[in-house]
Amino acid sequence: MTKRGPGRPPTWDLADFEEDLLRWIADGKNLRVWCREPGRPSWHTVYRWKHENEDFARRLAHARDLGHDAMAHELILLVEQPVATYDVTDAKGNVVAERMDPVDVQRRRLEVDAKLKLLACWSNRYSDRVRVGGDADAPAIKMTDDERTARLQALVAEALANKERGVKPGEDE
Q1: 69 neighbors 79 (Cβ within 8 angstroms)
Q2: Coil, strand or helix: which one is 128?
Q3: Which residues contact 144 (CB under 8 A, 6 or more apart)?
Q4: Average pLDDT for 129-146
């Protein structure tokens, strides 16, 4: 970082921060938390670097993919952690049962659900979104009117043949 003069914002050099930043993101950590550390550029600067430098943008996207995997792994560890329990005792003070703490169960459920929803928003790999033709990753199927008519006629003929054989829609023959 070099200062240009009194009152001027600092000038940041991507080369000074790139490896540390990409490692941080690949570990599944938050960009804005990294930027709040003393001596680091703001998140606005990181986004400017991303828009100005294609190679950095590509490496940042890859680091984010790795970070999403790290977050998914942390979710698995969170789910596998034992839940707090308490002992149920009888009138004599003897332990008769062990119960899971419902408050801990609910807190864990909320934490996992929130993180899972964020992960699904950030990464297509962890999303349960159904892709429909026309999406960038699933282009629309293009048919001429004649091809579409022929396909519909074939589907109707198949449905009528199944009906005659007594096969209901969705059943295997």
Answers
A1: no
A2: coil
A3: none
A4: 71
Residues 85 and 168 in one domain: no
For Cα atoms 97, 102, 105, give the angle at the middle one, nearest 5 degrees: 115
The radius of gyration of the chain's CA atoms, rounded to the nearest angstrom, is: 28
User: Residue 159: which domain range?
Assistant: 144-173
Q: pLDDT tens across 42-93, in order?
A: 999 999 999 999 999 999 999 999 999 999 999 999 888 888 888 898 899 8
Q: What is the CATH number of the domain that holds 64?
A: 1.10.10.60
CA angle 158, 163, 166 (to 5 degrees): 130
Number of H helices, E strands in the chain: 6, 2
Does some domain include residue 1? no
Q: How far apart are CA 115 and CA 122, in angstroms?
A: 11
- Number of domain units in the chain: 2
Is residue 74 packed enough to be buried (19+ CB in 10 Å), middle (13-18) or exposed (0-12)? Answer: middle
Residues 148 and 119 in one domain: no
What are the structure tokens assigned to 80, written together?
A: 């596998």
Q: Is the pTM of this model over 0.70?
A: no
